[in-house]
Amino acid sequence: MVEILESTLVVPSEETPNHKLWLSNLDQVTSRAYTPTVYLYRSKGEPDFFSVQSLKSSLAKALVPFYPLAGRLGLDQNGRVEINCTGDGVPFVVARSGSTIDDFKDFAPSQEIRDSFAPPVESVDPPCILVAFQVTYLRCGGVVLGVISHHNALDGKSALFFIKIFSAITRGGIDDAALIPLPFFDHTILSARSLPTILFDHDDYSTNIFQSNSSSPHLTTVLKLSKDQIQTIKNTCGDDNSRVSTFRAIVAYVWKIACIARGLKGNDETQLYMAVDVRNRLNPPLPQNYMGNATLRTKAVATVEEIVANSPSLGVERMKTAIHKITDEFVKSFIDYLDTSADLAGLTKRGGLPRTSLFAVSWLGLPIHDADFGWGMPELMARAQLYGCGCVYLMNSPEEDGGVAVVVALEEDSMGCFKKIFYEQM
What we know:
Strands 1-6-7-8-3-13 form a six-stranded mixed sheet, sandwiched between helices. It has two domains: 2-190, Chloramphenicol acetyltransferase-like domain (Chloramphenicol Acetyltransferase, 2-Layer Sandwich), CATH 3.30.559; 207-424, Chloramphenicol Acetyltransferase. α3 (111-117) links the parallel β6 (90-97) and β7. The longest helix has 16 residues, at 156-171. It is α+β, with helices and mostly antiparallel strands. The protein has ten helices and 15 strands. It has helices at 25-28, 52-62, 111-117, 156-171, 227-234, 246-261, 304-309, 312-324, 328-339, 412-424, and strands spanning 2-10, 19-22, 34-41, 72-75, 81-85, 90-97, 131-138, 143-150, 218-225, 269-277, 295-303, 357-362, 380-383, 391-396, 404-411.
């Protein structure tokens, strides 16, 4: 049980601009949902451990350069989402729980974790908040920091950058406001061209790949791979496996195991969707501190028989082909395509995927554990909840030992087999 002790709004410590912030087409078609994450901190008896006063004060300072996040998501006259930079503030919840840090030893994202340790929200639809925080003090003295960020406003890299700056200010790592790295909020850099030029087939985006019911029965697991186990998987990916990325090798392997565990027929078509960060694929690249959505979806396709009967190298090659087509011109063509789409809002609903599909997201290399608020690094950072069946997330091990955590959500009748053969097939 979690008891809410306090719920307040933290506003910027200085007056901030009041205006409307235009959002790009890449923002329009992403999830109309919050991304809930949790950070776990073990207390070592530090004085004023996770002081609410310190956190609120530093958050107020961080919200000066990041002032749009203190506003609200709105709609313009054409029904497009935009940010109303009102300075209304960021919800900050303080709670306590009878749980201990050790209760999270076998952590897996779930509805229960989301409901207990991420801040509550009334709606994902405008008008609504953009970010919120919940600090939950545990019986053992530890803390769970829950964060939600609205996906229409921030992708994972943007949200993590905000947390990085917020935590640095709190621990005294940035004690001068002039030293705060400035976020880049001008989304017009991703505007459609005045003369739309669609040179590629983007019809895959004409329908929503997600099923509408995200609450369909599914289970979530976190499977850990050591550095040696990752190399074992890479060794199955052809003679030149030294050039195969960790993401592609592991996801191709997960793709194969999921096809087996789901009992799919050999002639079924199976789809692997991936989120691709386009920041450095554009010419020129986006500014380093761009705050918004800069990812798009691509798809690798094969028959189940092809995936199951071959080594993961086949999946790696299909993934490589799907990812390499995301060039500067492809992204610009895609943005132009979205400008001609009649129903962008209809593409934003999220839920589980069909039984033949997976959606893989890489958090490898992202600063997910770079959240030292002055009391040490988190023991764990993870999503509090996944969208539903078929979602796969890859994250670096917090021990920085070269390991990877594989977070997978599958149907209840598939998960047992998946977990059993995941290590056996290696």
